[in-house]
Design goal:
alpha+beta; Rossmann fold; Dna Ligase, domain 1; D-amino Acid Aminotransferase, Chain A, domain 1; 3 domains; 9-stranded antiparallel β-sheet; 5-stranded parallel β-sheet; 11 helices; 28% strand
Length: 362
């Protein structure tokens, strides 16, 4: 039996662990939390993410190591890479953790993106406003996710407050993009360089947190462009594993927002909606197995369950719905689970998603 070490034992680790079981793969996790979600999918070594002892134990117990979130200390991955095989590479993690490095990577690869300026003072922010205009989005360079670490500056009155709320330095000001919709390109690359791509996915966010995903996006030209941009990242980073690239659609153009060097929330629909899930393909990629077919089984939708689970789960468990609970304690803004809908066409999918949304709001 092959063993994979996973740094982090949240819901993404949980789904990786479950995807490995039919393949005869055991996942071992490293996470300091008490009773994390992935404990249902494999043993958890309870150590801090940067613990030398914990990392050495994980390396000793497994054949290859990966991670399920992008705030893993880069130094820990660099240390592990000297002891064992680690995918994705530390370079990808380093770029994804710093929005400035990420944007400079996009620019170097010719990946279109919104205009931006670095901000380390109120004076810098005022200078950025002169170039980018208002409104603009002010973000921390590090540790931002699910809407955290960012503010929209709409007028002059909000400049100093936004700057102070985000810590006052190491910020990025981004041009406001009046996008038509948000999409994500998701693919996988194995050690030998084989690649597969999932259909482009459309995403809707509420308060900065992904609410609903729908696939496929019925636009062959956009899909081809998204896959090309993803392929550039694969090649530049010598990437192994699943990678997601979040994009804004503006007319017939795609503008890069950010990338995630891991399995991604917008790809959860692939568990039931694709012939091979993103989780299985991530495991296949890092073990240098042949990659699975990414073709769709129908028209797919995914509804995140945020802050609370449905009081009556039955509507979420009936065909064509698939309910996933993560085993987390409820709190506002926390992803507690998701439900996937797979139907024969988009109209049926929208009918079911609409019905489920009503159930959640009642």
């Amino acid at each position: 039996m092959q063993k994979i070490g996973i740094i982090g034992a949240g819901q993404l680790g949980q789904m990786l662990g479950h995807a490995g079981q039919p393949l005869g793969i055991q996942c071992v996790f490293l996470d300091p939390s008490d009773n994390p979600p992935a404990a249902s999918a494999g043993p958890v070594l309870q150590y801090p993410f940067d613990s030398a002892e914990g990392l050495a134990r994980l390396a000793g117990l497994t054949d290859v190591i990966t991670y399920e979130f992008e705030n893993v200390p880069v130094r820990a991955i660099e240390t592990l890479s000297k002891q064992t095989t680690v995918h994705p590479p530390a370079k990808a993690l380093e770029k994804a953790q710093d929005r400035l490095a990420e944007k400079e990577l996009f620019r170097a690869l010719g990946i279109p993106l919104p205009a931006f300026r670095t901000v380390d003072s109120v004076s810098d922010l005022n200078s950025a406003i002169k170039v980018l205009g208002l409104p603009l989005v002010l973000k921390t360079r590090r540790l931002g996710y699910d809407g955290k670490g960012q503010r929209i500056v709409r007028d002059d009155a909000g400049i100093e407050a936004a700057f102070d709320e985000l810590g006052g330095d190491e910020l990025i000001a981004e041009q406001w993009v009046p996008f038509d919709r948000e999409v994500s390109a998701i693919g996988a690359r194995n050690v030998r360089g084989d690649t597969v791509f999932y259909p482009l996915t459309e995403n809707v966010h509420e308060n900065g947190i992904l609410s609903v995903s729908r696939a496929p996006v019925d636009d062959d030209e956009l899909s081809a462009v998204g896959n090309d941009l993803l392929a550039r990242l694969f090649a530049e980073l010598d990437y192994v594993g699943v990678l997601a690239l979040e994009l804004f659609v503006t007319g017939d153009r795609l503008l890069a927002n950010e990338f995630a060097p891991r399995v991604h929330n917008s790809g959860h629909w692939t568990i039931e909606g694709a012939n091979t899930s993103q989780f299985e393909n991530h495991l296949r990629a890092i073990l240098d197995m042949s990659l699975g077919d990414t073709g769709m089984r129908g028209s797919a939708g995914m509804l995140n369950l945020i802050g609370t689970l449905p009081a009556d789960p039955r509507p979420f468990q009936q065909t064509p719905c698939h309910l996933h609970g993560y085993g987390k304690r409820a709190r506002p803004g926390r992803k507690l689970g998701h439900v996937t809908v797979v139907t024969k066409d988009a109209n049926d999918r929208e009918t079911v998603l609409g019905r489920l949304s009503k159930c959640l709001n009642n």
